[in-house]
Each structure stands twice: as C-alpha cells, then as structure tokens.
C-alpha cells in the first residue's frame, strides 16, 4: 500500500508538540505503508534546515520532498473574504492551484492509495484527488476552533466580533475538511467526540502519540547550549508562540508563584520554550528565567524539582507533559493539562485548577522528596506503557482496515 502525507509546515526540529506528534504518527504510517512525506510550506527554510529534516524522516519514510510556496496561504483580499462569508464556505485554510495540481499529479504518478492530510487547515486539498479512488484521511492534533474560542473570553467590541467571526470560520473549515475526508484521526477522546459530530463514529479513530525519546536527534537550532545558570525548582516547558502556552506561563508567574514565594522566597522558576513574546519576556526577574528556544529540554527536566503545566486553554495532548512524565518528574497540572493522558490525581500527578491550590501543591511537593519520587515513578510507568509505537501503529491499521472494508 502506498501513502502520501502532506503537511503545511516543516515538523522539525522535534522541539514542539506539533512536530513530535506528527513525527511519531508519520513513523507509524511508514511502518504500515510505503510513505511519501510531502512538506508544503509557505515558510522559507534554509538548505541546512531541510537537510536536517530529511535526514530525520528519511530514516523511515520511503520518500521525503519539500515545496515552499507562499501561494498556499488564503487571500486576505476583501472581495475574497466577502465571497467566503456570503457562500458560507471557509476562508481559513490553505489552497493553491499549482499545489493542488501537483498533489493530484503525485497521486496518479505514484499510484497512491491513501492521502493523509496533517491538519484541517490543509483539508481543501482533498478536493484535488476526487475521482482518483484514493482514500482520504484527515489528521488532527487539536480542535482548532476551541483554541480561538478561548481567545474570545474577556474581549469586547470589535476585537470580540473579529474573533467570533474567525471562530465560526474555523468551525466551517473543520466541518469542510471532515466532510471531504473518508476518516479522521484525533489525538484525544475529547477531540474525537467533536469530530464524531461531523463524521460517523466508526470513521473517527483516536491515535496515541508514540513518545519520542528524551533526547531527539540534534537539531539545526542548537543555539542555546549554555549551561543552566541555576537549578530550577519549578519548570514549565512549551512553545511560547502557542497562545494556550503563553496564557499558562503568565498565569503561573503572575497568579501562582507569588503565593509560592511567600512560603519559599528563594524558589526559582524556568519558563522554557521557543519564541516568547513581549508578555512572556516581561516575566523575567531574579527568580524567573525565560530561556527562549533550547536544543533539548532534558537538562531542565533532569534538574527541576517540580514540573508545572497550568493549562487553562487549548485541546489535544500536551506533549511536553509526556516528556516530563517520561523523565520521572513530579508534576502539578490542571484538568485541561491532563486531558487525553489518563492521569489519576495523586497517583501520577497532582491535578488542580485554582491558583491557590496549584501553589499549595507546588509548596507541598518542594518539601516532600518521597512524594516527588512516587509521583515521578508512577508517571513514567504510565507513559511508557500507554504511549508506544506499537499502539500508534495499531490505530493506523484500524483506520486502514475500516476504510478498505467499506466499498
């Protein structure tokens, strides 16, 4: 069986949840089919960046190719926006006629059996293969509209109206992509329930992330190899250009840590992750370190006493939480942060949502090494038994079997 997986961004280096999630699924698909990975991106990358990515994915993909083209992003011409609004078709999402023709050409030339699309934002490309007999599978990592919906909270006036319109447009995009696809793969049960409202239940499958080792292949962005200046007591890790992570970092430093510092005034917290904006950079102080992008998170995980993931927004699985679990760290997180991971409170982590409860949990763990060890060992056992390549491959086989069992 031959597959083509198209993705709208370069899923490398493995320094963010999206890249890690896609890498594990792509590896699982490659184990079950002959896979051509086709990266279709509007971002310009250097030769060294593309070469590093090709070396990584070339270890298991049959073929890896790239196309960089700014044409793929939606037009923000007022007439184009008005047309989409009046016809109730989604404006959000990528589309380029040249790229659509290229994808159809690849399908026909390589006799592709299954087209995998790595995001609802690329779902319009399913239209390019109609009539070819190729099966179409939509891969999701979040409910994208939920992320925008969370941004609406607290907004007023024109700002709120713009976000409401964006939210509804992305919902149309998700529905359109689901309608074009033969099946949908979701990353959590919660996400799957959303897509089962758009698709028959047996055509929506949850796929487990196959956990990536703590030290992934060396990246092309190794520009932060300096030693950790101090040992962090508390650590939060995530890509800071993702709005839910930015919100969590600000909530942690401004609402939670002041209560921790009353009890433990010398406690040091690290906010680790690429592309921090001005709001996150402004959190830095004598006991708050904002690192920016780092090549590997292992040294921060190994040295921190407590890993905190105070997520209040978003969907999908928080993959940095999986990394902390695999590293055997004591974790404090919210119900949102634990979503999709089957974490049990007081067994694998401490789960609480209110700022004062999170602060008290951090204070408690800081003074209890035995409890930190117990939580860490349980968390590590859970991630090692649940998030495996074998289980990810099994779900790939499940969705393929269902598609090919149906005429």
UniProtKB/TrEMBL annotation:
GO terms for molecular function: glycosyltransferase activity. Keywords: Glycosyltransferase, Transferase. CDD domains: GT4_PimA-like. It holds the Pfam family Glyco_trans_1_4. PANTHER family: D-INOSITOL 3-PHOSPHATE GLYCOSYLTRANSFERASE (PTHR12526:SF510), GLYCOSYLTRANSFERASE (PTHR12526). This is Glycosyl transferase family 1. It comes from Desulfosarcina ovata subsp. sediminis.
